[in-house]
Amino acid sequence: MNVDEAIKKRISVRAFTSEPVSEATIRDILEVARYAPSGGNLQPWKVIAVAGAARDAVIALAKANLPGDEGERLVYPANLWEPYRSRRYKVGEDMYALLGIGRDNKPARYAHLAQNFEFFGAPVALFFVIDTGMGHGQWAHLGMFMQSVALAALERGVGSCMMEAWARMRTPLHKHFALAENEMIYCAMALGHADMSKPVNTLRSDRAPVDEIATFKGF
């Protein structure tokens, strides 16, 4: 698999099989991903990997603390504007259509969202930690590290789902993982083998064409 193929093939897996992923595989993925770029080579990231009983413990913690609170570091800006609002709306509607859940079925929609806090059945989850003193640049670098994790996982046949929903659990997770005062959870990532028998895993979110996102000058 080349880089182009990996970038285009990666999806947010929302249904996993129970097939385990070994610690050796996770270590191998992180061994590659740690070469992600960062300004000044700060490498402003830490990772907490959970499986087995440790995974079950954070799932129980989330259930005990729902709906939780994102705090000051919101996942999305308030009153999201165009074209971002429409993009977010469409991918949500496309997903629920594949799940067969209508707009008026609020309980079913909430139940699906709650599966974020069970990692959609994935056997392994990563939690990404950043120092609260870091700036916007370092958050961007953390994102590059996460993308590297997802692509390295895909090459090894391991699917992923980046899960910002876990931002709602930052406070209880901070205590649970005994983080330093200046550390915080950004989000989680589920890792496992995609259950391709589930229609939700056929979702391919739209992408804006190049001419909508890029301006070319001097060519």
Question: What shape does the CA trace take?
Answer: globular
Assign the CATH superfamily: NADH Oxidase
Mean pLDDT: 97
Number of strands: 4
Rg, rounded, reads 18 Å
Low-pLDDT windows of residues:
none
How would you characterize the overall build of this protein?
- The model has no long low-confidence stretch (mean pLDDT 97).
- Helix 2 (23-33) packs across helix 6 (136-155).
- The protein has helices at 3-9, 23-33, 52-65, 84-99, 106-114, 136-155, 170-176, 210-213, and strands at 46-51, 124-131, 159-163, 183-192.
- It has one domain: NADH Oxidase, CATH 3.40.109.10.
- By secondary structure, the protein is an alpha+beta fold.
- Helix content is 40%, strand content 13%.
- It has a four-stranded antiparallel β-sheet with strand order 1-2-4-3, with helices on both faces.
